[in-house]
Amino acid sequence: MLPQEESLDILMTFLHAHGYRKVKGISIDTIKKLASIILKDNVFAYGKKIYKQTTGGAMGSSLTLTLANIFIYIDDIFMTWNRSEEELRKLLDDVNTWHPNIKLDYKIGNSLPFLDVQLTNNNGVLSTCVYHKPSAEPYVTPFTSDHLRHVLSNIIKTSIERATRYSSTFETFNHEGRYIKLMLLYNGYPSTFIENEFHKYFSEYISKSPFLPLIDDEQKYFLLRKQILGQPTPR
């Protein structure tokens, strides 16, 4: 959890380092006082007693998240290492001694998830596929919802595009394609609607005719993937 006083000091250091004297007309001294109120004046009642939070900030507070990002980069990090695993573990264990409130969880291996991608190093050959968390549930917007039809179509399109971008082999792409179809069926999507959306998506890249066989061999898949990887991702 964030140490309150240290977080406020680091906030001031951050503002000074970026040349701020005021932010939207508010002096940085006033910002520090206001931030102190938000961090330190958090009280709650439990069991007929009143408690005051002395470490960290209110859960869900936008200021708490901002301070956490200034205090330490809080997102996931992926890195490669060319020295021994023992040296890497020693380095990471040393990092965990730098601050009593900062503890890094880490995983080391030849196959690791990073966000929603599974990366595998097989004797120097890197492969990727879509990663699903063990706790993930196979739910998307139900077909019976009141959403417009194009919203439901976009769910399928986005899922296929992610599978294509992330699947470095034809085999993993087919595996993810089966997962997508089962997930959609589970959420009430008619099989004809699913197949039509798959064909519509692939025909944009492979053929103008949706009736031709689509993505039935590796060559076609890699052609599709090359075209999609050459496009910018939507923002």
Automatic annotation (TrEMBL):
Domain (Helix-turn-helix) spans 139-199
Q: What is the official name of this protein in its record?
A: Helix-turn-helix domain-containing protein
